[in-house]
Amino acid sequence: MSANPSNLTPAKLFLAPMEGVTDWAMRDLLTSLGGIDQCVTEFLRVTDKLHPYKVFEKNCPELKTGSRTRSGTPVFVQLLGGQAIPLAENAVRAHEMGALGVDLNFGCPAKTVNRHDGGASLLKSSDRLYNIVKTVRDAVPASTPVTAKVRLGFDDPSHCLDNVKACEDAGATWVTVHCRTKTDGYKPPAYWEWIPKIQERTKVKIIANGEIWNVEDFKKCKAETNCADFMIGRGALRNPYVFSEIKAHLQTEQSQSPNSLELIVPFFDACTVYVNDHFATARTKQWLSQLRIVSPKAREIFDQVKVHKKPIEFKTHLEKLLN
Ligand SMILES: Cc1cc2nc3c(=O)[nH]c(=O)nc-3n(C[C@H](O)[C@H](O)[C@H](O)COP(=O)(O)O)c2cc1C
């Protein structure tokens, strides 16, 4: 089972940082429509200098309003670069100016950025990721989240395993995974299947990102990744209401699932009468394995009761969880 199950935690939805797109005006408008829990600024490129205050104010005008959009959504400042110390100095400045968190961009595929040693080129070395995240983490107060945004790798998706682990070991508060390599660019599909593999090795919270365009994609991504939190970029431009539609779907799901779950014990009993309690155990597990796809509560129950082979133990545990 994933170390970060979506169980009953309400999903958090992030608006993806998109340079040249999700500026103050777009963040302001989209967050006013509801459904977005967190924003990240477009990347602020860091070479070897500490940016003046006005550069931060331009990147994140929300710093003047508590690092929140006018509708109250928190905004983190995103930094991009390959040198740990200047990144840390700029992170400290962002913090001092009131940033609620600092996100580090390790995913940008742009040639100019990668030629200058930033963005996705860093995914070639988990040691460098570790060093950057750790240096920034140590520089800002522990109460300020330091987060990372990665792609699966530069050209090899399996590098996500070491890279996310490096971010976790360095103290990242969470890691957003854009489920493609740099070489994949923006070409569909997004390889969501890597997230459960990452979570077998890490406990850090993962934000799933890539190719969520609508509620259907969201449901598939949630079922495949078992994540609780999701980031949406281009989908927000095609449908600015996608976040509130997903939230509405989640509310319906949560209000419907207890009703379905009330049917489980009567079904077990009917199967016992129909054949026997071993049959009932098998059939009930089978049904729960379907219900868990649409119900976080069913997933939680399934994960706990599936280990029982003895019908009496299975049913007792089931009843306990349903009461
Ligand atoms: C025009 C554009 C600009 C982007 N700029 C950034 C950026 O500044 N920082 C970043 O971390 N990712 C950036 N991204 C990547 C997105 O945050 C996101 O990871 C990617 O679009 C996949 O999500 P989606 O399929 O929901 O769009 C950008 C993507 C696009 C299309």
Task: Summarize this entry quickly.
The protein is an alpha/beta fold and 323 residues long. The protein has 14 helices and eight strands. Helix 5 runs parallel beside helix 6 (159-169), helix 6 packs across helix 7 (194-201) and helix 12 packs antiparallel against helix 13 (296-305).
By CATH, the topology of the largest domain is: TIM Barrel
CATH class of the largest domain reads: Alpha Beta
Main sheet record: 8 strands, parallel, barrel
Tally of individual domains: 2
**Which outline best applies?**
elongated
How would you describe what is shown here?
There is one protein chain. With 323 residues, the protein is of the alpha/beta class. It has 2 domains: 12-253, Alpha-Beta Barrel (TIM Barrel); 262-322, no CATH class. It is built from 14 helices and 8 strands. The protein has helices at 24-32, 53-59, 84-96, 111-115, 126-139, 159-169, 194-201, 215-225, 234-238, 242-261, 264-274, 277-294, 296-305, 311-322; strands spanning 12-15, 38-45, 75-80, 102-106, 146-153, 174-181, 205-209, 229-232. It has an 8-stranded parallel beta barrel with strand order 1-2-3-4-5-6-7-8, surrounded by 5 helices. Strand 5 (146-153), helix 6 (159-169) and strand 6 form a beta-alpha-beta unit. Helix 6 (159-169) crosses helix 7, helix 11 (264-274) runs antiparallel to helix 12 and helix 12 packs antiparallel against helix 13 (296-305). The longest helix has 20 residues, at 242-261. It is elongated, with a radius of gyration of 22 Å. It starts with 11 loop residues before the first strand and ends with a helix. Residues 1-8 have low confidence and may be disordered. Flavin mononucleotide (FMN) binds next to strand 2 and helix 9.
